[in-house]
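In the design runs reported in the main text, the only information available to the sequence generator was the tokenized backbone. The following block is the verbatim input for one such run; it is reproduced so that readers can re-run the procedure and compare outputs position by position.
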């Protein structure tokens, strides 16, 4: 698997796609931690706590 990863980084197009994907994951993870003005976080915490169960919890 390590050899496959090394070979993937030797190809410029694949390397760019891998780095772009990792970069987007970092941006999304950081962006998800930023507070949004005007959004009541307590309301959403309570709402998500109430959403346990339902059609998808067998």
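Verbatim output:
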């Amino acid at each position: 698997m390590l050899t496959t990863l090394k070979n993937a980084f030797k190809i410029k197009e694949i390397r760019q796609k891998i780095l772009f994907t990792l970069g987007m994951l970092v941006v999304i993870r950081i962006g998800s931690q930023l507070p949004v003005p005007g959004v009541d976080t307590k309301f959403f915490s309570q709402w998500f706590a109430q959403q346990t169960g339902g059609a998808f919890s067998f």
